[in-house]
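User: Can you predict the 3D structure of WD repeat-containing protein 76? Sequence below.
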Amino acid sequence: DGCSQLSAYERKRLKNITENAKFFAALKLHESAARLHQIATKRPSHVTKRAKPKKAEDETVRRRSMRLQRVEPSGIPMPEMPAQPGAEEYPQVPAGPLPMVPEDQMGDSKLTEDLLTTWMRISEVLLVIITNVLMMLSRYQDSLNSMVLSEDNIKKVVKYRVSSVAIHPSENIIFVAAGDKSGQIGLWNVNSKSEEGAHVFIPHNYLVSCMHFSPFNPAHLLSLSNETLRCGDVTRAVFDEICRSEESLSSFDFLEDNASTAIVGHWDGDVAVVDRRTPGTSSELSADIGFKRTRTVHVHPVNKQYFIAAGSVDVCIYDVRYLKSNGNKPVSSLKGHTKSVASAYFSPVTGNRVVTVCADDKLRHNNNTGRWLTRFRAIWDPKQEDCFVVGSMARPRQIEVFQDTGKLLHSFYNLDCLGSVCSINVVHPSKNILVGGNSSGRLHVF
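Assistant: Sure. Here are the predicted structure tokens for WD repeat-containing protein 76:
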């Protein structure tokens, strides 16, 4: 009414604005924000700390090997290694759901509320609009050349070595998550230039080896550690427990677009199928695939019944529909690796390519990170079917982009700002954004 003077286009635009307003009103954002404030300001009654082992004064003196005495077989003492944090320094995380309360309870709860509200807001927008852009190689190289690193986009997000990174698919806010070797997860709103732009949470007891924002609902951040797979739900400000296992978990990936089911790898070589819709925290199926060790699992982007597993020297593709407890045979085996395989991933659009990282240094790429750095994982750029990103041991320190032919397309480096190895990297699904994590808990955003 009263719009008779508007053109057809303007009337259509006004109708869309009205419908969108009704949609966001139905989301009841103000109620969600109120819940966040209530949870963020509530302090837990106590924090359980891991008990230190008691010293046995009358313990029998045991024979110590030359390795434990740090002595070479020749009798020459080995150089001292840098001290590593002891297990007793890590807090003990209980089973079951955990409130999204930062590690530092002395901080301003309003700042935490702002961070979580940002995550929730950008997720709700993405539930309405999802875009996917593919670029020609020449345009792709131009976009790589345009990406830079500045001091403002470097931040220590977690306390210890970064072991996993995830980036939120929002096109408006750069929002990243990092997991470290102690079980911490740091959330960082890169667009917030204040010192309080990042907060640390402790939902796990051990190294966080794998993290993904849910492709179906980016308000959910799923994270996996040795003992548990959790879902951080920002709308409820809780880290729910999806799966708990006595066997050490290594990695996971979603089997369906709605993220209701997942394939989970175990360090001892088995894989498991987990369904988030069933009650309890047990897996639906545990399957022996013949691996001594399974480091990564990844689901085919088109034919989601197939997943690829990478282990000791094995890289095999399996059909999840035919998994059973024992006697599983791969659909395909990728031969040729002679040393330990760190990861294997399908290409993002067709899945017709697989990129692996192995200690045999193929592609003339030095993958020998040593024991103090997280092992490299080559990951595909979601926007480019035939290009992948991987850390580098080269100097100056850099992150490299290769084409599937082996051609080096680009090296990301900054002599002033990047002086460390970024073992773990992630690329934004639609924007020209790359995030690299190092062994001191810092993230670098190009």
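Confidence is low (pLDDT under 50) at residues 130-134. Residues 154 and 444 are 5 Å apart (CA to CA).
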